[in-house]
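Lab notebook: predicted structure, single chain.

Context: the supervisor wants predicted structures on file for every construct in the current expression panel, including those that have not yet been purified. This is the next one on the list. No modifications to the sequence; it matches the entry in the shared construct table.
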Amino acid sequence: MNTPSYSKLKISNDVLSQEVGGETVLLDLQSENYFGLDEVGTRFWQLLQEGNDQSQIVGQLQDEYDVEEQQLKQDLDDLIKKLAEAGLISVEKT
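Prediction complete. Output recorded below exactly as produced.
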């Protein structure tokens, strides 16, 4: 399966994040909803905050975790979709 790629991923200005015990809690200030990220989701969020693009994030996560590239891309695509649907990030498809 070929997953979509994104030229730009941007964290919404209305989102606050806090790491708690290896996980990250996100707060959407507009909706006042909380969202939780697991360890890998937290690392994705950190890399996104550092300004990395999707391909850089995939490469870094592959170096850090024992996971097949295709599975990682699919999992990240699912996470990106969920975060975008919740208004936590904006995406521009290539």
